[in-house]
Design goal:
mainly alpha, Mycothiol-dependent maleylpyruvate isomerase metal-binding domain-containing protein, 5 helices, about 45% helix, Four Helix Bundle (Hemerythrin (Met), subunit A), single chain
């Protein structure tokens, strides 16, 4: 988790002088600022699910940046939320499961870590694309996410340059039509193999 957030903050920290609020994040409907706020919200949300041992629903809260938060401040919030998720993952016993809607209505600490890393990497790519900078996520983090969330996918060099490191919001993974739009999850029929 810490490595994903540090990589993201390093990449996006170089462009905090640009207009994040007025530029769409890649092909998303959100602006770059809204996308960064979404990442922060997911990270603290996942941490809360684990720490609170939520069993039936998401904890009833949301996070919002202050209106006057600048881009550097936004990245500080993302970084802090990443630290909180990492702490929750480290301190949650391996046997604990907490609510997440897809696909089995719960996830382990490793599952929440993988989903958090996926959110960071994918949306960093979206923001970078929107701001016109190159971004290549660390291969070992992509492999961790793919093998944890999509065990039927064989990690390797991406045949799709420019499309991001897989998608949680829209594009099927290479060689597999089972990944569903808008959901980051372990596919129900993964146990049957590729």
């Amino acid at each position: 988790m810490e490595a994903a957030v540090a990589h993201s903050v390093a990449a996006l920290g170089a462009v905090t002088d640009r207009d994040w609020a007025g530029v769409r994040a890649g092909r998303l409907e959100w602006t770059c600022r809204e996308t960064a706020e979404h990442v922060a919200g997911d990270l603290i949300g996942y941490a809360t699910q684990l720490a609170g041992r939520e069993q039936d629903a998401y904890a009833p809260f949301d996070i919002a940046l202050l209106d006057d938060a600048d881009n550097a401040g936004t990245l500080r919030v993302v970084s802090a939320m990443g630290v909180l998720l990492a702490a929750a993952v480290r301190t949650t016993p391996r046997s604990v499961r907490a609510f997440h809607p897809f696909p089995f209505r719960h996830a382990s600490r490793e599952g929440f870590a993988a989903m958090g890393i996926a959110e960071v990497l994918l949306h960093t790519h979206d923001i970078a694309e929107g701001l016109g900078i190159a971004y290549e996520p660390p291969a070992e983090l992509c492999e961790f996410v793919l093998t944890r969330i999509f065990p039927h996918v064989r990690p390797g060099p991406s045949p799709r340059r420019g499309g991001g490191p897989g998608r949680t919001a829209g594009v099927d993974l290479p060689g597999d039509g089972r990944a569903r739009r808008g959901r980051s999850h372990r596919v129900r029929d993964a146990a049957r193999g590729p």
